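Follow-up to my post from last week.
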Amino acid sequence: MNILFIMYDQLRFDYLSCAGHPHLHTPNFDRVAHMGVRFSNAYVQSPICGASRMCYYTGRYASSHGAQWNGFPLRVGEQTIGDHLRKLGMDCWLIGKTHMVADADGMARLGLSADSTIGARQAECGFDAWVRDDGLWGEGPDGFYDEKRSPYNEYLKGKGYDSENPWADYANAGIDDEQIASGWMFRNADKPANIREEDSETPWLTSKTIEFIEEHDGPWCAHVSFIKPHWPYIVPAPYHNMYGANHIPQPRRADVERDDPHPVFGAYMENKVASAFQREEVRQKVIPAYMGLIKQCDDQLGRLLDHLENTDRLKDTMIVLTSDHGDYLGDHWLGEKDLFHEQSVKVPMIIYDPRSAADAARGTTCDALVESVDLAATFVEAAGGKVPDHIIEGRSLIPWLHGEVPDWREYAISEYDYSATPQAVKLGLRPRDARLFMVFDGRYKLMHAEGGFRPMLFDLQTDPDEFNDLAKGGKHHPEMDRLYDMLAQWGRRMSQRVTRSEDDIETMRGKSGRRGILPFMYDGSEVPDELTVKYRGTVRQDHVKGDDKGS
Amino acid sequence: MNILFIMYDQLRFDYLSCAGHPHLHTPNFDRVAHMGVRFSNAYVQSPICGASRMCYYTGRYASSHGAQWNGFPLRVGEQTIGDHLRKLGMDCWLIGKTHMVADADGMARLGLSADSTIGARQAECGFDAWVRDDGLWGEGPDGFYDEKRSPYNEYLKGKGYDSENPWADYANAGIDDEQIASGWMFRNADKPANIREEDSETPWLTSKTIEFIEEHDGPWCAHVSFIKPHWPYIVPAPYHNMYGANHIPQPRRADVERDDPHPVFGAYMENKVASAFQREEVRQKVIPAYMGLIKQCDDQLGRLLDHLENTDRLKDTMIVLTSDHGDYLGDHWLGEKDLFHEQSVKVPMIIYDPRSAADAARGTTCDALVESVDLAATFVEAAGGKVPDHIIEGRSLIPWLHGEVPDWREYAISEYDYSATPQAVKLGLRPRDARLFMVFDGRYKLMHAEGGFRPMLFDLQTDPDEFNDLAKGGKHHPEMDRLYDMLAQWGRRMSQRVTRSEDDIETMRGKSGRRGILPFMYDGSEVPDELTVKYRGTVRQDHVKGDDKGS
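User reply:
Got it. Predicted complex:
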């Protein structure tokens, strides 16, 4: 069996028709949901690109692997799905974005060169890179945001797009009176991107994926990782005006949220992207573009599924559709992601398992509390292995996919390290204090903030919109203690004993006695003779008397 | 300045005259205490050889580095004092024991060969090994406990000791009617070890240390790590009978401890070594030998200090005297270490800083709550560096050594993973549930036990003997909440963000905008022109119309 691990960037959980969107029709996402299981309560372990992805790729929480924000390198030696799957004879390939930053210092410290296979895999977060392109080719006075090569820009140049940075000038810009109308500016979101639709990012990466599949026998896991619908919010015709004012929901926000808000929430509500999304003209421009980008993703998914179907590969390919985090789009007075409201931290999670054991659950929705770290465990089990649960902190979803009801977690955790953001500066926080923790039991959602702040608390049963912070004004709500106990229990988890599995330890027990470690004997009668035989015999030399007898 | 980081194994905090021992006179330990500062409240982060040492050598808690018990390899890539000090131009050498187990799987995964400098240092816990000898050459039907070479055994053979394992047959055995009287058997503890005193372990390692000092210019940190007074409890003449019945204290234990004990404590009280030490004849044999071993350590320390003095090296050598854990010796109905009573988890910590800034504090006792992980921070600061507090979890003791009163911790933490022991089997625990946590605020000591057990709680102010478990019978003591809050706070600590320091993050802040990441603009007027200049200009090709104009 092969695994197609498909990730979209910044795709909200509710912007799919199978998740109930009233206007955005995504028949191909729905098709996979119909073939498999749609998990309706899936949460990422950090609602920001880099950290979320590191959690997916290691199967470990952000504070277990330490790559807690964008640009924080994943420490050398941290094990990834590539490591686990290759041990089981399954290759692990990348097509697209990871946001991985290599631990160059660590690699140098261990003498790993980036051009060895081992070094390259360390630098690529455990993947063999078919295509590595993180999709954001921003450029400013200090240079490119991403200093690696861009296969996508090279493709565009090869197709005749006349620019040093065609990603910026064509794929992510429209035209306004013969001037480049950059997609960085929301004003331009409703313009068609100045590119042939088939050359835009999503079709390009889909073509690379089809090419990969045609050239590789399995078993493989391929991480197909699209940049869209992440900003810049601009999409080529015909998607740019497929949606309009009639399709834009009212923002889900309430005045009460702005009244004595949690200080961290308050700082975010005042930041630049939040201020932008508080303006209705921004939402009116951006949301149709965002929907158009998703529609294009759905059409391209259809192209990929058709290819699998036409080549009879659906029968041996597991398919996962997910996202690294959501997008507020003006809900809660915010833009972007970062915090823990559903719009940000909850993601689509649709999984198709082709095996007959999964027949019973096809087309169902599962509301178990899923964490993104569960995918690593799921892939190991799908590849025929035993989940190394002293390393991978997630749990395999295979039982759910097979219609079983396993023992399951009582709460989901997510974390956010905002130390590198203006909000941390605004709040006057030392970097290590700019950290948030979410504990969600399926009904109550607690956000703990380091740095001496009060928490936030929502009851999603009575307040599904998460407008009423029950911890406002420092109120102590009875459910807080229970959720703080869960957070404390999670804080005591065993996350670093990565060199000894549970089985290893059970095997170790009682062995040292058979190797002469016997520190509890009075006279040796306590143990069988064979254990003490090496400590007996006639003395050969007597050094006490200073008299070295011969033997 | 050089650093002599001297560690004894299993040396109780109170078996020194400067700590108040009424009979054991240790003038050389006292001499260093008089030259420097004696820390009277120093705690190890795991009261067992292997895990304690890994904490010392990384400056990190056991659940941060994961090498939580004897034989658990320290994961490849984990940074050690060797890494930190070499960056500052200070070599880092080993003379003696570390109990380090190399992460062979991890090294293979990263292609590190054990015979490269990098690989050797990984395998030796970051040290360059002048002498590596872990001091326990037990042998049983399954072979040697330690499969590495033994420089000490090689030395003894070279000196004519006739045996395949002279450590067992001579250094750690006496003579009983011409038979080997093994030191593994407590019955033999009062016999003189069958070896010339100058060839026994402590003098041998001291000679190797003096040799090292003579051959190495600084700056260096040398970890001089003795096996004694760890068992086998046997010592050569004249030390074997220097102490006797008059010098053995009553065991510090009470019947109330055995009444409805905490299940983990109860399991330990029933184990073999505890049962042995509950017999007064065992204490009568062992304790004088233990004292003799310490007396020999003190005499040899004197030899080393005299050498430093005679070669005028005291003026540029920092000296640290400490231990990896204690020894119950029958107190609390126990033998060995493992749990968190003072006899086990508290250690000597005597530090001499030769610099004039330390003059003000010479000869003083400091009762600040010290953790063994503080030494790594202390050494980095002593070597002239800034403590990498995103990696090292301890705090530098230099301020205390210089007579200052820095902001300090409110509680000390220790952990114990007993998953590989018979007690975990007896209690029917999964390995990951066999874990204990200590939180000590200087007065109240809480022991939390995973696996669903109640905690233990002591008030050392009203019950300095730690006989009265305030949590017995599941009682909820008001102080528990406060200590559990401390444990929860510690559980949220940032321990894995090892690739980005606080300074790195402060430097990162706000930089992406200057590299073209501008996801919040309506029309570009929000930022200076220089940030958007790359996104402007005349369109060269119009792909919207399908009409590629020339430029």
